[in-house]
Amino acid sequence: MASADEYSIRSALQLTSLGADVHFVEALAPGQPVLAYYADESEEGWYDARVLRVHSGGSQVDVRYDEYEQIATVVREAVRARPSAGGGPTARARRGGGGGGGHVRVPPPAAANPFQAQREALPVFAYRQRVLDAIKQHQVVVIEGDTGCGKSTQLPQYVLEAAAADGLPCSVVVAQPRRISAMGVAERVAAERGERIGGAVGYTIRLESKTSAQTCLLFCTTGILMRRLSDEADAAAAAGGVRAQKLAGVTHLFVDEVHERSMESDFLLMVLRDLLAERPDLRLVLMSATLDAGLFARYFAAVPAAAGARAHGAGGTLGAASDVPAPVIAVPGRTFPVTALFLEDALELTGHRVRPRADWARKLPKNAGGGPATAPAYGGGARGARGGGMHRVPSEQGGMAWLPQPHAPARTHSDTQLATHWRAGAGGAGGGSGGGGGGAHAAFGEDQRADMDLPPIELAQRYASYSAKTAEALGALDHSAINYELLVELIVFLKAQPSERSAKALNELARDKHTAPLGPAAGVRARAPAELPPAPPAQPGDGDAILVFLPGLKEITTVHEMLLENSHFAREPQRSWIVPLHSTLPPDDQRRVFLRPPPELGARKVVLATNIAETAITVDDVGFVIDTGRMKETRYDPSRRMESLDEVQVSRANAKQRRGRAGRVRPGVAIHLFTRHAHEVTMAGHQVPEVCRVPLDRLVLTIKALRYPQPAADVCARLIEPPSAEAVRRAIAELVEIDALQLSEPQPAAGARAGAPPAAVEELTALGEHLAKLPVDVRIGKLLLFGAIFDVADEALTVAATLSFRTPFLAPFDKRAEADAAKMRFKAGQSDHLTVLRAYREFDQSGGARFQMARECFLSVRTLQSIAQLKRQLLELLSDARFVRPGLRARAVEAVGRRERGSDGCRTAIMLGVDAALDGGADGAAAGGALATPDDLDGSTGELLKSLLCAALYPQVVVVEESKKAGKMPKLLTREEGSAEPMPVQIHPSSVNAREAHFASTYLVYAEKVKTGAVFVRDCAPVSPYALLMFAGELRSEGGVRVSGRAKGGRRRQVEQRDAAGGEVVLCIDQWIRFRVPQRVESLILDLREQLEALLKTKISRPELELSSAGRGVLSAVMSLIAGQHGPGLGGF
């Protein structure tokens, strides 16, 4: 029996069109048919095999399904009998452990290795033996490695090479936080070993795998690894609780980028900490790039000492733990030294004075005199404004320029003045905790108070080495606000430096003063000059770029406008080299950041960026960094079900990353617009972990999918930094509300202390089991399932993929009005979701003209292609769960799309199946085009989709109170939990409904509620009252007639029916939304709602069942009611 790789199945039989999950093939005889089979998870936890007979005849491949039941048993036994005993390499890869299903002998790398010199030049090479010794001696090792040290590519190779040298079997799994990292690092490692990817080195990401039976080093995402652990828990549950070894065959597990503190990563660490008690032979290596390596080392000091003392098991408790933290090995990076300057240095350099009425000035007491502050000249609120302290004067080149008011005269600085300032010891430029620089740092002592908390005399004493003007400015500033005038002055100052005064020359000036880069305590390691690689020689006219870190797009726009009104930037060529960098900008605009201005122009590139430039994007010609010290961070208030995008101070870890951007190619300079005292004393070491600031419903689902018997709150309490109990409680309540989780009657826990209240047993419902397997938000997952049941799976997939990824609409910096007009052309049903759906459909069906269409309509081709890829992946999961026809593999659906002139292939595959579509079974497909999709988004199809959005997103509902005055915007109100008063909200400016004065319904559903300045709702759509009556919450007749829907705790309640005299009755949803209906209609609505709920429950429990004629009749009646074809009139409140 030959493996797929040995048989060259991809090239010989062109099987890539059939799917990527081919296990192996069996050539029965030359010229005879070939058997190929691939994994498919069954309910029993085994990986059954669907068998294809492939007849190779010229360029044609004829495929047909054999009888499943007759062959599956034979194939399953063949899979079990294979030596690797894991269901084949691809099956293991799908579970997250390809290459980890059994101990594998490590092949030696290629003899002639052109990469060897590069590998040995990496800083981590000097630590090779030390790391290997630590891994042998300790079960957990923490590696703190600066960016560029080589830890991700080299450390797993060192383990493989040591095993090969000792003749020992070895299986290494490396978990990466992102798909692109897993693929990129795997391909690099394979190249360094002189192999092709998929041999000894492979990778597995969501629905894509390149592994083989020889794979002994597997790179995967943390999500894939979690999926494997979940599958193992399912298999154990199916086997009656028999516990098999977890991560069987894996000898070494690396988890990279743990410092990013994603919710998934933190939870994985907790699961692995529990697992280590069962697997004393497993070696765990955590790799971090920033300051909190000690946090992980201390966390794993609590690894249970005794195998089997696992909290995961029923009645298990953590055993005795060691007090000794896991060892930490620190590896330096390969960056050049960066001179760090701070706010006090910036004020001293520029002589900046703070205007008393500026938005960034400390607010004086009311009796301090002065009238109202000058209105800001730029929009965007207090921190988004430049203020009124600049005035226009004629510039030397003609035209007008902005200059400070007379009370703050502008200063020009020559290189001589700059050198004089640094040599005078005015601010300890670059002086770190390791010594050097003196200045303010020596005066900090034990004083922990923030600068803004000091009275003027003590503030002046803290900064005694600086001028009185600097101390005065420090006292006048609001240190939590961005001083835009100072920021522009600094950019102008750095731009004005002659080309030969690059970042390298500025560092030499700092060294003349016997300073060093910021010391280890602040996050940058000081190294002797002899250790540094030689800096590239300075080129004539080589002007280092200036990278400015700002919180968001609003702040980028403010600085951009101010620079364009400055005489140094107002004219070409410099004007064109102010480059904004934000995730919402078009790819072409983002690519400009990598270009360099021609030396003959004499222009200096200025990049205005968010924290996307910290790690995601590297601009390799940056010599100067200006760090405002602010960033936008998403926070979640569970009690209000509301996210807020808050502007917060960066952490020391963020500051280190930003500072390091200036030292990628030569010595650089970073100017932080916060004080050195703030950095070293009051600033947080790292960001708040994601688990403490996002909704936890997905985490609770994962906990239950892993079969933890303890309450979710108890499991979450064991995380490295636990979330609040209220956040967990709210997540459980939301899962109960959408019927994904049910709470059974509380039972006393075994071994619980006397008097402790028993906890309710949390169990996943059938819906929750399905949602746990979908890699999307639980409400989006519910939309997918309902879309499949109501036969609009393709449309639901598009909406779900867009909500899970991002909008394809672009907003070019200089063409926003045109882009907004193009977006409104696609507006459908007053819905942001349907607007995106219409735009995507037009792109998908445009064939060869799609790229021109995207350019003309300001659509991101890359985003649309990513949406198509995500659609196919989600469709495969729906197919695996039997909500759509079986066998729809993502790769096969992509092949269908290629036959349709590049469509996503989903709709045709859903309607016809892969085989019929590839055989040209439909007229449209046979002609090379996608099946025609009628645009009914303003009609019944649109109403149905909005109703399913209501089913998925409820209770995220807005009540519209329209004004009686023509043209006036309506009042929008939403329910706030725990408050009797509704909360006023606004529609986000990016919505197609932002300027809508009249809606088709009194009710809107929305995807998220975000607080910035005001409270905004994003991605909204009007929904029919009948959609609310059919899908939303608990429905009852007021006065206690009947109840339909889910009550608290997931238990259905129903009370006796009341005889009512004629007239109207009130139907109420969750004691909140009320409708007045004729009495004769009341029973019809309640009966239909109950029948719909029974049908949905059955279909979700057994999705493979075909609907009966009665079931189809129920769905038809609901759709007709929603579409308004047969609906009685309703009176709202």
What's this entry about, in short?
The chain is α/β, with parallel strands linked by helices and 1133 residues long. 35% of the residues lie in helices and 17% in strands. Helix 7 crosses helix 8, helix 22 packs across helix 25 and helix 36 crosses helix 37.
CATH architectural group of the largest domain: 3-Layer(aba) Sandwich
Let me know the largest β-sheet. 8 strands, mixed
Q: What's the overall average pLDDT, rounded?
A: 74
Shape: globular
Radius of gyration: 32 Å
Into which percent range does the helicity of residues fall?
Answer: 25-40%
Number of folding domains?
6
Question: Quick one: CATH superfamily of the largest domain?
Answer: P-loop containing nucleotide triphosphate hydrolases
> What name does CATH use for the topology of the largest domain?
Rossmann fold
Low-confidence stretches: 1-101, 305-321, 366-443, 499-503, 509-541, 922-929, 1047-1061, 1125-1129
Number of helices: 39
What is the distance, rounded to the nearest whole angstrom, between the alpha carbons of the first and last residues? 71 Å
Structural class: alpha/beta
Taking strands numbered 1, 2, ... along the chain, how are they ordered across the largest sheet? 9-8-10-7-11-12-6-13
State the oligomer.
single chain
Query: What's the total number of strands?
Result: 35
Fraction in beta strands: 15-25%
CATH class value of the largest domain: Alpha Beta
Keywords: ATP-binding, Developmental protein, Differentiation, Helicase, Hydrolase, Meiosis, Nucleotide-binding, RNA-binding, RNA-mediated gene silencing, Spermatogenesis
InterPro entries: DEAD-box_helicase_OB_fold, DEAD/DEAH_box_helicase_dom, Helicase-assoc_dom, Helicase_ATP-bd, Helicase_C-like, P-loop_NTPase, RNA_hel_CTD, Tudor
Organism: Diacronema lutheri (Unicellular marine alga)
GO molecular function, one term: ATP binding
